Amino acid sequence: MRFARHVAAIAGKDLRAEIRTKEGFNAALAFAVVILILFxxxxxxxxxxMREMSGGLLWIVFAFAGAxxxxxxxxxxxxxxxxxVLLASPVSPPALLLGKTIANFVxxxxxxxxxxxxxxxxxxxxxxxxxxxxxxxxxxxxxxxTVIGTVFSALTxxxxxxxxxxxxxxxxxxxxxxxxxxxxxxxxxxxAPPEPGDWLWFRLLIGFDIIFTLLxxxxxxxxxxx
Amino acid sequence: MDDxxxxxxxxxxxxxxxxxxxxxxxxxxxxxxxxxxxxxxxRMLEDKxxxxx
Amino acid sequence: xxxxxLSSALAAAGGLWLIRNLHVVTLQLPDEAAQGAVYRxxxxxxxxxxxxxxxxxxxxxxxxxxxxxxxxxxxxLAVACVxxxxxxxLIGLATGSIWARIIWGIWWTWDARLTWALITCLxxxxxxxxxxxxxxxxxxxxxxxxFSTFAFVSVAITYKSIEWWRTQHPGPVLDFRTGGGQIxxxxxSALYHNWGALMLIAAALVLIRMRQEDSRRELxxxxxxxxxx
Lengths: 226, 53, 229
Fold this sequence. Notes:
The complex is a heterotrimer.
Chain A (H helix, E strand, L loop, with lengths): L1 H20 L1 H21 L3 H25 L10 H7 L4 H30 L8 H25 L6 H29 L8 H26 L2
Helix pairs in contact in A: 1-5, 2-3, 2-5, 3-5, 3-6, 3-7, 5-6, 5-8, 6-7, 6-8, 7-8
Chain B lengths: L5 H47 L1
Chain C lengths: L2 H26 L13 H28 L2 H32 L8 H21 L4 H29 L9 H4 L6 H44 L1
Protein backbone atom coordinates (compact mmCIF):
# COMPACT_ATOMS: atom_id res chain seq x y z
CA MET A 1 0.00 0.00 0.00
CA ARG A 2 2.78 2.39 0.98
CA PHE A 3 4.57 1.31 -2.17
CA ALA A 4 1.55 2.27 -4.31
CA ARG A 5 1.27 5.65 -2.56
CA HIS A 6 4.96 6.36 -3.18
CA VAL A 7 4.66 5.35 -6.83
CA ALA A 8 1.66 7.64 -7.25
CA ALA A 9 3.47 10.50 -5.53
CA ILE A 10 6.52 10.21 -7.80
CA ALA A 11 4.45 9.81 -10.95
CA GLY A 12 2.28 12.75 -9.91
CA LYS A 13 5.33 14.92 -9.23
CA ASP A 14 6.89 14.19 -12.63
CA LEU A 15 3.63 14.68 -14.50
CA ARG A 16 2.86 17.93 -12.72
CA ALA A 17 6.31 19.26 -13.56
CA GLU A 18 5.82 18.21 -17.17
CA ILE A 19 2.32 19.76 -17.40
CA ARG A 20 3.60 23.05 -15.99
CA THR A 21 6.70 23.39 -18.17
CA LYS A 22 5.79 21.14 -21.13
CA GLU A 23 9.48 21.17 -22.09
CA GLY A 24 9.97 17.49 -22.87
CA PHE A 25 6.48 17.07 -24.23
CA ASN A 26 6.71 19.95 -26.70
CA ALA A 27 10.19 19.00 -27.88
CA ALA A 28 9.28 15.35 -28.39
CA LEU A 29 5.99 16.16 -30.11
CA ALA A 30 7.63 18.66 -32.45
CA PHE A 31 10.33 16.13 -33.22
CA ALA A 32 7.77 13.42 -33.97
CA VAL A 33 5.83 15.73 -36.31
CA VAL A 34 9.02 16.72 -38.12
CA ILE A 35 9.91 13.09 -38.76
CA LEU A 36 6.38 12.35 -39.95
CA ILE A 37 6.66 15.20 -42.45
CA LEU A 38 10.21 14.42 -43.54
CA PHE A 39 9.15 10.90 -44.31
CA UNK A 40 6.82 12.08 -47.07
CA UNK A 41 9.84 13.61 -48.85
CA UNK A 42 11.95 10.53 -48.29
CA UNK A 43 9.78 8.19 -50.34
CA UNK A 44 6.69 10.06 -51.54
CA UNK A 45 4.54 6.98 -51.02
CA UNK A 46 1.28 5.96 -52.61
CA UNK A 47 -1.44 5.09 -50.15
CA UNK A 48 -1.02 1.36 -50.80
CA UNK A 49 2.73 1.51 -50.03
CA MET A 50 1.97 3.63 -47.01
CA ARG A 51 -0.38 1.02 -45.64
CA GLU A 52 2.42 -1.54 -45.75
CA MET A 53 4.90 0.78 -44.06
CA SER A 54 2.63 2.44 -41.53
CA GLY A 55 3.72 0.31 -38.57
CA GLY A 56 7.39 0.79 -39.28
CA LEU A 57 7.11 4.55 -39.73
CA LEU A 58 4.96 5.08 -36.65
CA TRP A 59 7.17 3.09 -34.33
CA ILE A 60 10.36 4.71 -35.56
CA VAL A 61 8.74 8.07 -34.82
CA PHE A 62 7.52 6.90 -31.39
CA ALA A 63 10.85 5.36 -30.46
CA PHE A 64 12.74 8.56 -31.39
CA ALA A 65 10.27 10.78 -29.58
CA GLY A 66 10.45 8.39 -26.64
CA ALA A 67 14.22 8.75 -26.41
CA UNK A 68 13.79 12.54 -26.08
CA UNK A 69 11.34 12.14 -23.22
CA UNK A 70 13.36 9.41 -21.49
CA UNK A 71 16.63 11.32 -21.77
CA UNK A 72 15.27 13.87 -19.28
CA UNK A 73 13.71 11.47 -16.82
CA UNK A 74 16.57 11.06 -14.34
CA UNK A 75 18.97 13.84 -15.43
CA UNK A 76 16.26 16.40 -14.53
CA UNK A 77 16.86 15.36 -10.89
CA UNK A 78 20.59 16.14 -10.90
CA UNK A 79 20.52 19.95 -10.41
CA UNK A 80 20.39 20.85 -6.71
CA UNK A 81 21.07 17.16 -5.91
CA UNK A 82 17.36 16.35 -6.10
CA UNK A 83 18.20 12.73 -6.84
CA UNK A 84 20.03 12.38 -3.53
CA VAL A 85 17.05 13.92 -1.77
CA LEU A 86 14.69 11.48 -3.47
CA LEU A 87 16.92 8.57 -2.47
CA ALA A 88 17.09 9.81 1.12
CA SER A 89 13.30 10.07 1.27
CA PRO A 90 11.20 7.08 2.40
CA VAL A 91 10.51 6.28 -1.27
CA SER A 92 12.30 3.04 -2.17
CA PRO A 93 14.27 2.88 -5.43
CA PRO A 94 11.80 0.42 -7.05
CA ALA A 95 8.93 2.79 -6.24
CA LEU A 96 10.92 5.72 -7.60
CA LEU A 97 11.63 3.86 -10.82
CA LEU A 98 8.05 2.68 -11.24
CA GLY A 99 6.67 6.16 -10.60
CA LYS A 100 8.99 7.70 -13.16
CA THR A 101 8.21 4.92 -15.64
CA ILE A 102 4.50 5.60 -15.30
CA ALA A 103 5.01 9.34 -15.80
CA ASN A 104 7.08 8.75 -18.94
CA PHE A 105 4.50 6.24 -20.13
CA VAL A 106 1.68 8.76 -19.82
CA UNK A 107 3.67 11.47 -21.62
CA UNK A 108 4.63 9.15 -24.46
CA UNK A 109 1.08 7.84 -24.84
CA UNK A 110 -0.15 11.44 -25.04
CA UNK A 111 2.36 12.16 -27.81
CA UNK A 112 1.35 9.00 -29.66
CA UNK A 113 -2.33 9.76 -29.49
CA UNK A 114 -1.66 13.16 -31.06
CA UNK A 115 0.63 11.71 -33.74
CA UNK A 116 -1.74 8.97 -34.81
CA UNK A 117 -4.57 11.24 -36.06
CA UNK A 118 -2.00 13.53 -37.66
CA UNK A 119 -0.53 10.52 -39.44
CA UNK A 120 -4.04 9.59 -40.60
CA UNK A 121 -4.62 13.07 -42.02
CA UNK A 122 -1.22 13.58 -43.64
CA UNK A 123 -1.07 10.17 -45.29
CA UNK A 124 -4.79 9.82 -45.90
CA UNK A 125 -5.00 6.70 -43.83
CA UNK A 126 -7.96 5.28 -41.96
CA UNK A 127 -6.37 3.88 -38.81
CA UNK A 128 -9.55 3.31 -36.80
CA UNK A 129 -10.57 -0.08 -38.16
CA UNK A 130 -9.34 -2.11 -35.17
CA UNK A 131 -9.35 0.51 -32.39
CA UNK A 132 -9.27 -1.82 -29.38
CA UNK A 133 -6.41 -3.99 -30.57
CA UNK A 134 -4.45 -1.00 -31.86
CA UNK A 135 -4.80 0.64 -28.46
CA UNK A 136 -3.61 -2.56 -26.78
CA UNK A 137 -0.56 -2.65 -29.08
CA UNK A 138 0.23 1.00 -28.33
CA UNK A 139 -0.06 0.49 -24.59
CA UNK A 140 2.03 -2.69 -24.48
CA UNK A 141 4.82 -1.49 -26.76
CA UNK A 142 4.96 1.95 -25.16
CA UNK A 143 5.34 0.30 -21.77
CA UNK A 144 8.23 -1.74 -23.21
CA UNK A 145 9.95 1.44 -24.42
CA THR A 146 9.43 3.33 -21.18
CA VAL A 147 10.34 0.55 -18.77
CA ILE A 148 13.70 -0.08 -20.45
CA GLY A 149 14.23 3.59 -21.23
CA THR A 150 13.61 4.77 -17.67
CA VAL A 151 15.96 2.27 -16.04
CA PHE A 152 18.61 3.14 -18.62
CA SER A 153 18.01 6.81 -17.95
CA ALA A 154 18.96 6.03 -14.34
CA LEU A 155 21.91 3.97 -15.52
CA THR A 156 23.33 6.73 -17.72
CA UNK A 157 22.53 9.68 -15.47
CA UNK A 158 26.18 10.37 -14.60
CA UNK A 159 27.60 9.65 -18.03
CA UNK A 160 29.44 11.96 -20.31
CA UNK A 161 27.52 12.13 -23.61
CA UNK A 162 24.44 10.58 -22.03
CA UNK A 163 22.08 12.12 -24.59
CA UNK A 164 23.93 10.18 -27.27
CA UNK A 165 24.49 7.03 -25.26
CA UNK A 166 20.89 6.39 -24.24
CA UNK A 167 19.49 5.75 -27.75
CA UNK A 168 22.53 3.70 -28.73
CA UNK A 169 22.06 1.51 -25.66
CA UNK A 170 18.29 1.07 -25.66
CA UNK A 171 17.36 0.61 -29.33
CA UNK A 172 19.17 -2.74 -29.81
CA UNK A 173 17.47 -4.06 -26.67
CA UNK A 174 14.08 -2.80 -27.81
CA UNK A 175 14.23 -4.57 -31.16
CA UNK A 176 11.98 -7.53 -30.22
CA UNK A 177 9.29 -5.22 -28.83
CA UNK A 178 9.52 -2.75 -31.72
CA UNK A 179 9.46 -5.61 -34.22
CA UNK A 180 6.26 -7.00 -32.71
CA UNK A 181 4.71 -3.53 -32.49
CA UNK A 182 5.54 -2.75 -36.12
CA UNK A 183 4.08 -6.04 -37.35
CA UNK A 184 0.89 -5.62 -35.33
CA UNK A 185 0.39 -1.95 -36.15
CA UNK A 186 0.76 -2.52 -39.89
CA UNK A 187 -1.69 -5.40 -39.65
CA UNK A 188 -4.25 -3.52 -37.58
CA UNK A 189 -4.13 -0.34 -39.66
CA UNK A 190 -4.76 -2.46 -42.76
CA UNK A 191 -7.88 -3.50 -40.89
CA ALA A 192 -7.79 -7.27 -41.20
CA PRO A 193 -8.75 -9.14 -38.04
CA PRO A 194 -5.65 -10.86 -36.65
CA GLU A 195 -5.08 -14.44 -37.72
CA PRO A 196 -4.25 -17.06 -35.07
CA GLY A 197 -0.53 -16.74 -35.85
CA ASP A 198 -0.56 -13.01 -35.15
CA TRP A 199 -1.43 -13.45 -31.47
CA LEU A 200 2.17 -14.62 -31.10
CA TRP A 201 3.26 -10.98 -31.34
CA PHE A 202 0.91 -9.96 -28.55
CA ARG A 203 2.34 -12.76 -26.44
CA LEU A 204 5.85 -11.57 -27.25
CA LEU A 205 4.98 -8.00 -26.19
CA ILE A 206 3.36 -9.12 -22.95
CA GLY A 207 6.26 -11.43 -22.11
CA PHE A 208 8.78 -8.69 -22.93
CA ASP A 209 6.94 -6.21 -20.68
CA ILE A 210 6.71 -8.61 -17.75
CA ILE A 211 10.32 -9.80 -17.93
CA PHE A 212 11.86 -6.35 -18.22
CA THR A 213 9.58 -4.78 -15.61
CA LEU A 214 10.65 -7.45 -13.12
CA LEU A 215 14.31 -7.17 -14.11
CA UNK A 216 14.26 -3.38 -13.82
CA UNK A 217 12.58 -3.57 -10.41
CA UNK A 218 15.13 -6.13 -9.21
CA UNK A 219 18.19 -4.21 -10.41
CA UNK A 220 17.27 -0.58 -9.80
CA UNK A 221 18.55 -0.65 -6.23
CA UNK A 222 22.01 -1.61 -7.53
CA UNK A 223 21.82 1.15 -10.12
CA UNK A 224 20.85 3.96 -7.79
CA UNK A 225 22.39 2.98 -4.47
CA UNK A 226 25.31 0.67 -5.34
CA MET B 1 40.97 -22.85 -61.46
CA ASP B 2 38.24 -22.06 -59.08
CA ASP B 3 35.55 -24.71 -59.47
CA UNK B 4 36.07 -25.49 -55.82
CA UNK B 5 35.65 -21.90 -54.62
CA UNK B 6 39.13 -21.90 -53.20
CA UNK B 7 39.47 -18.12 -53.35
CA UNK B 8 36.64 -17.53 -50.97
CA UNK B 9 37.89 -20.22 -48.64
CA UNK B 10 41.10 -18.23 -48.49
CA UNK B 11 39.18 -15.01 -47.83
CA UNK B 12 37.32 -16.69 -45.00
CA UNK B 13 40.43 -18.00 -43.30
CA UNK B 14 42.23 -14.71 -43.84
CA UNK B 15 39.34 -12.80 -42.29
CA UNK B 16 39.22 -15.11 -39.26
CA UNK B 17 42.96 -14.83 -38.63
CA UNK B 18 43.02 -11.15 -39.48
CA UNK B 19 40.37 -10.27 -36.93
CA UNK B 20 42.07 -12.34 -34.26
CA UNK B 21 45.40 -10.70 -35.07
CA UNK B 22 43.81 -7.25 -35.00
CA UNK B 23 42.42 -7.93 -31.54
CA UNK B 24 45.83 -9.11 -30.31
CA UNK B 25 47.39 -5.95 -31.73
CA UNK B 26 44.89 -3.72 -29.91
CA UNK B 27 45.62 -5.65 -26.72
CA UNK B 28 49.34 -5.12 -27.20
CA UNK B 29 48.96 -1.43 -27.97
CA UNK B 30 46.83 -1.00 -24.89
CA UNK B 31 49.53 -2.72 -22.87
CA UNK B 32 52.21 -0.33 -24.09
CA UNK B 33 49.85 2.57 -23.47
CA UNK B 34 49.45 1.44 -19.88
CA UNK B 35 53.22 1.14 -19.50
CA UNK B 36 53.70 4.66 -20.80
CA UNK B 37 51.14 6.03 -18.39
CA UNK B 38 52.86 4.29 -15.50
CA UNK B 39 56.17 5.86 -16.57
CA UNK B 40 54.53 9.29 -16.69
CA UNK B 41 53.10 8.77 -13.28
CA UNK B 42 56.45 7.73 -11.85
CA ARG B 43 58.09 10.81 -13.28
CA MET B 44 55.33 12.98 -11.88
CA LEU B 45 55.83 11.43 -8.44
CA GLU B 46 59.58 11.99 -8.59
CA ASP B 47 59.05 15.61 -9.57
CA LYS B 48 56.76 16.11 -6.62
CA UNK B 49 59.24 14.45 -4.25
CA UNK B 50 62.12 16.64 -5.44
CA UNK B 51 60.09 19.84 -5.27
CA UNK B 52 59.00 18.96 -1.75
CA UNK B 53 62.51 18.42 -0.37
CA UNK C 1 50.59 -21.21 -11.87
CA UNK C 2 51.14 -17.46 -12.31
CA UNK C 3 48.79 -15.84 -14.77
CA UNK C 4 51.31 -14.70 -17.45
CA UNK C 5 52.69 -18.24 -17.80
CA LEU C 6 49.20 -19.72 -17.78
CA SER C 7 47.98 -17.43 -20.54
CA SER C 8 51.07 -18.07 -22.70
CA ALA C 9 50.67 -21.81 -22.16
CA LEU C 10 47.03 -21.68 -23.14
CA ALA C 11 47.78 -19.61 -26.23
CA ALA C 12 50.62 -21.95 -27.26
CA ALA C 13 48.48 -25.05 -26.76
CA GLY C 14 45.61 -23.45 -28.67
CA GLY C 15 47.95 -22.45 -31.49
CA LEU C 16 49.44 -25.92 -31.83
CA TRP C 17 45.99 -27.47 -31.73
CA LEU C 18 44.86 -25.08 -34.48
CA ILE C 19 47.80 -26.06 -36.69
CA ARG C 20 46.95 -29.73 -36.23
CA ASN C 21 43.30 -28.95 -37.08
CA LEU C 22 44.32 -26.94 -40.11
CA HIS C 23 46.16 -29.98 -41.38
CA VAL C 24 43.11 -32.19 -40.89
CA VAL C 25 40.71 -29.67 -42.38
CA THR C 26 42.67 -28.71 -45.47
CA LEU C 27 44.58 -31.91 -46.31
CA GLN C 28 42.63 -34.84 -44.91
CA LEU C 29 38.95 -33.97 -45.29
CA PRO C 30 37.40 -34.17 -48.78
CA ASP C 31 35.43 -31.36 -50.41
CA GLU C 32 31.78 -31.13 -49.54
CA ALA C 33 29.68 -32.62 -52.34
CA ALA C 34 27.65 -29.52 -53.23
CA GLN C 35 29.78 -26.64 -51.93
CA GLY C 36 33.35 -27.46 -52.96
CA ALA C 37 36.20 -26.22 -50.84
CA VAL C 38 34.52 -23.13 -49.44
CA TYR C 39 32.55 -25.18 -46.91
CA ARG C 40 35.76 -25.34 -44.85
CA UNK C 41 34.92 -21.88 -43.55
CA UNK C 42 32.46 -23.79 -41.42
CA UNK C 43 35.33 -25.06 -39.28
CA UNK C 44 35.99 -21.53 -38.13
CA UNK C 45 32.46 -20.20 -38.40
CA UNK C 46 30.66 -22.62 -36.09
CA UNK C 47 33.41 -22.87 -33.41
CA UNK C 48 33.72 -19.07 -33.41
CA UNK C 49 30.01 -18.78 -32.66
CA UNK C 50 30.19 -21.41 -29.94
CA UNK C 51 33.12 -19.57 -28.42
CA UNK C 52 31.34 -16.24 -28.46
CA UNK C 53 28.19 -17.76 -26.89
CA UNK C 54 30.35 -19.18 -24.12
CA UNK C 55 32.11 -15.86 -23.61
CA UNK C 56 28.85 -13.88 -23.45
CA UNK C 57 27.31 -16.43 -21.10
CA UNK C 58 30.31 -16.06 -18.80
CA UNK C 59 30.04 -12.28 -19.04
CA UNK C 60 26.36 -12.43 -18.06
CA UNK C 61 27.09 -14.70 -15.11
CA UNK C 62 30.01 -12.51 -14.05
CA UNK C 63 27.70 -9.47 -14.14
CA UNK C 64 25.19 -11.18 -11.87
CA UNK C 65 27.99 -12.39 -9.61
CA UNK C 66 29.24 -8.80 -9.27
CA UNK C 67 25.80 -7.54 -8.33
CA UNK C 68 25.51 -10.23 -5.65
CA UNK C 69 29.06 -10.32 -4.30
CA UNK C 70 30.45 -6.87 -5.23
CA UNK C 71 33.93 -8.26 -5.96
CA UNK C 72 36.03 -6.44 -8.56
CA UNK C 73 37.34 -9.68 -10.06
CA UNK C 74 33.88 -10.39 -11.51
CA UNK C 75 33.85 -7.03 -13.27
CA UNK C 76 37.29 -7.75 -14.68
CA LEU C 77 36.13 -11.17 -15.88
CA ALA C 78 33.01 -9.65 -17.46
CA VAL C 79 34.82 -7.04 -19.52
CA ALA C 80 37.47 -9.52 -20.65
CA CYS C 81 34.80 -12.01 -21.74
CA VAL C 82 32.78 -9.39 -23.58
CA UNK C 83 35.80 -8.19 -25.54
CA UNK C 84 36.85 -11.69 -26.51
CA UNK C 85 33.22 -12.46 -27.34
CA UNK C 86 32.95 -9.44 -29.63
CA UNK C 87 36.17 -10.46 -31.42
CA UNK C 88 34.79 -13.94 -32.06
CA UNK C 89 31.41 -12.52 -33.08
CA LEU C 90 33.19 -10.51 -35.75
CA ILE C 91 34.99 -13.65 -36.91
CA GLY C 92 31.66 -15.48 -37.08
CA LEU C 93 30.06 -12.65 -39.05
CA ALA C 94 32.99 -12.34 -41.46
CA THR C 95 33.41 -16.05 -42.19
CA GLY C 96 29.65 -16.46 -42.53
CA SER C 97 29.38 -13.51 -44.88
CA ILE C 98 32.19 -14.78 -47.11
CA TRP C 99 30.63 -18.23 -47.25
CA ALA C 100 27.23 -16.73 -48.07
CA ARG C 101 28.70 -14.76 -50.99
CA ILE C 102 29.42 -18.07 -52.74
CA ILE C 103 26.56 -20.24 -51.57
CA TRP C 104 23.71 -17.73 -51.41
CA GLY C 105 25.23 -15.27 -53.89
CA ILE C 106 24.91 -12.36 -51.44
CA TRP C 107 27.03 -10.96 -48.63
CA TRP C 108 24.21 -10.37 -46.25
CA THR C 109 20.57 -11.24 -45.82
CA TRP C 110 18.10 -10.30 -43.10
CA ASP C 111 17.76 -13.87 -41.99
CA ALA C 112 16.91 -14.66 -38.38
CA ARG C 113 20.31 -15.75 -37.10
CA LEU C 114 22.27 -13.13 -39.02
CA THR C 115 20.04 -10.38 -37.70
CA TRP C 116 20.31 -11.77 -34.21
CA ALA C 117 24.10 -11.92 -34.43
CA LEU C 118 24.24 -8.31 -35.59
CA ILE C 119 21.97 -7.12 -32.78
CA THR C 120 24.01 -9.06 -30.22
CA CYS C 121 27.14 -7.46 -31.58
CA LEU C 122 25.55 -3.99 -31.26
CA UNK C 123 24.38 -4.65 -27.70
CA UNK C 124 27.86 -5.65 -26.59
CA UNK C 125 29.49 -2.77 -28.43
CA UNK C 126 27.14 -0.67 -26.33
CA UNK C 127 28.53 -2.38 -23.24
CA UNK C 128 32.11 -1.48 -24.19
CA UNK C 129 31.13 2.12 -25.01
CA UNK C 130 29.29 2.43 -21.72
CA UNK C 131 32.41 1.35 -19.85
CA UNK C 132 34.57 3.85 -21.70
CA UNK C 133 32.41 6.77 -20.64
CA UNK C 134 32.52 5.98 -16.91
CA UNK C 135 35.56 7.09 -14.91
CA UNK C 136 34.94 5.91 -11.39
CA UNK C 137 35.91 2.19 -11.12
CA UNK C 138 33.21 1.19 -8.64
CA UNK C 139 30.32 2.83 -10.44
CA UNK C 140 31.72 1.56 -13.74
CA UNK C 141 31.68 -1.99 -12.38
CA UNK C 142 28.20 -1.58 -10.92
CA UNK C 143 26.63 -0.01 -13.98
CA UNK C 144 28.23 -2.36 -16.46
CA UNK C 145 27.15 -5.33 -14.34
CA UNK C 146 23.53 -4.16 -14.52
CA PHE C 147 23.87 -3.51 -18.24
CA SER C 148 25.36 -6.93 -18.92
CA THR C 149 22.46 -8.58 -17.07
CA PHE C 150 20.00 -6.65 -19.23
CA ALA C 151 22.05 -7.48 -22.31
CA PHE C 152 22.05 -11.17 -21.53
CA VAL C 153 18.27 -11.33 -21.06
CA SER C 154 17.60 -9.17 -24.10
CA VAL C 155 19.86 -11.27 -26.31
CA ALA C 156 18.00 -14.40 -25.22
CA ILE C 157 14.60 -12.84 -25.97
CA THR C 158 15.81 -11.50 -29.31
CA TYR C 159 16.99 -14.96 -30.28
CA LYS C 160 13.54 -16.45 -29.70
CA SER C 161 11.59 -13.60 -31.24
CA ILE C 162 13.65 -13.37 -34.40
CA GLU C 163 13.26 -17.08 -34.98
CA TRP C 164 9.53 -16.36 -35.30
CA TRP C 165 10.29 -13.59 -37.73
CA ARG C 166 11.98 -15.44 -40.57
CA THR C 167 14.72 -17.92 -41.25
CA GLN C 168 17.05 -18.81 -44.10
CA HIS C 169 20.17 -19.95 -42.27
CA PRO C 170 20.99 -23.68 -42.54
CA GLY C 171 19.53 -25.60 -39.63
CA PRO C 172 21.57 -27.45 -37.04
CA VAL C 173 23.63 -30.40 -38.31
CA LEU C 174 25.65 -31.43 -35.27
CA ASP C 175 24.63 -34.63 -33.49
CA PHE C 176 23.80 -33.02 -30.16
CA ARG C 177 21.10 -30.94 -31.85
CA THR C 178 19.76 -33.44 -34.38
CA GLY C 179 20.33 -36.81 -32.73
CA GLY C 180 22.87 -37.88 -35.35
CA GLY C 181 23.21 -38.63 -39.02
CA GLN C 182 23.31 -35.11 -40.51
CA ILE C 183 27.04 -34.60 -40.68
CA UNK C 184 30.04 -36.78 -41.51
CA UNK C 185 31.78 -38.05 -38.36
CA UNK C 186 35.24 -36.87 -39.42
CA UNK C 187 33.94 -33.36 -40.20
CA UNK C 188 32.11 -33.19 -36.91
CA SER C 189 35.19 -34.20 -34.95
CA ALA C 190 37.29 -31.60 -36.82
CA LEU C 191 34.68 -29.02 -35.84
CA TYR C 192 34.83 -29.95 -32.17
CA HIS C 193 38.61 -29.97 -32.27
CA ASN C 194 38.63 -26.45 -33.66
CA TRP C 195 36.16 -25.34 -31.02
CA GLY C 196 38.53 -26.64 -28.36
CA ALA C 197 41.44 -24.79 -29.91
CA LEU C 198 39.52 -21.53 -30.23
CA MET C 199 38.33 -21.84 -26.63
CA LEU C 200 41.94 -22.16 -25.46
CA ILE C 201 42.90 -19.07 -27.44
CA ALA C 202 39.87 -17.20 -26.10
CA ALA C 203 40.81 -18.22 -22.55
CA ALA C 204 44.33 -16.89 -23.09
CA LEU C 205 42.94 -13.61 -24.45
CA VAL C 206 40.56 -13.31 -21.51
CA LEU C 207 43.41 -13.84 -19.03
CA ILE C 208 45.58 -11.23 -20.76
CA ARG C 209 42.73 -8.75 -20.85
CA MET C 210 41.93 -9.38 -17.17
CA ARG C 211 45.51 -8.59 -16.24
CA GLN C 212 45.34 -5.39 -18.24
CA GLU C 213 42.09 -4.34 -16.59
CA ASP C 214 43.67 -4.94 -13.18
CA SER C 215 46.67 -2.79 -13.96
CA ARG C 216 44.45 -0.15 -15.51
CA ARG C 217 42.40 0.08 -12.33
CA GLU C 218 45.58 0.22 -10.26
CA LEU C 219 46.88 2.98 -12.48
CA UNK C 220 43.69 4.99 -12.08
CA UNK C 221 43.88 4.62 -8.31
CA UNK C 222 47.55 5.68 -8.30
CA UNK C 223 46.80 8.69 -10.43
CA UNK C 224 44.05 9.78 -8.09
CA UNK C 225 46.44 9.34 -5.18
CA UNK C 226 49.15 11.42 -6.85
CA UNK C 227 46.76 14.22 -7.69
CA UNK C 228 45.38 14.19 -4.18
CA UNK C 229 48.82 14.78 -2.68
